[in-house]
Design goal:
The protein is built from six helices and no strands. It is mainly alpha-helical and about 130 residues long. Helix 3 packs antiparallel against helix 4.
């Protein structure tokens, strides 16, 4: 396992462990926000694939690498093709500008590793 793959695994495990730890606290605002986030990505007038692509573009524009990686994995799980992913990347780049380029590089690297089975898709929808 490479250092990059080890970092993905560590991030995934840390995120899951800490999300559970956070949800174990008796704070209804946090619980409701997590539930709202989960509900937002359920199928509705828009299908899951479209919603995940929207989440990916928004994450790119906001320049959140954790969220970008999460949505790349969720998009892949929802059946988004590589060509569709790169069209979403292009929307994020145009809306966000050249400052998005480093995030595009990391997103492409993460997608490459997912496609080659080198990184596990994050489980549970929790926005990073």
């Amino acid at each position: 396992m490479s250092d990059a793959d080890d970092r993905v695994q560590q991030f995934t495990e840390f995120r899951q462990r800490m999300n559970q730890r956070i949800l174990d606290e008796p704070n209804q605002v946090i619980r409701r926000f997590f539930a709202l986030d989960t509900q937002t990505y359920q199928p509705g007038a828009l299908d899951v694939k479209t919603k995940e692509l929207c989440g990916l573009v928004a994450s790119m524009v906001l320049r959140c690498d954790d969220c970008i990686s999460y949505h790349v994995a969720q998009c892949k799980d929802a059946g988004v093709t590589r060509a569709e992913m790169f069209e979403a990347f292009s929307v994020g780049l145009v809306v966000g500008g050249s400052i998005v380029i480093p995030h595009l590089r990391r997103a492409t690297d993460f997608l490459d590793r997912l496609e080659h089975g080198e990184a596990a898709s994050p489980a549970l929808h929790d926005h990073g």
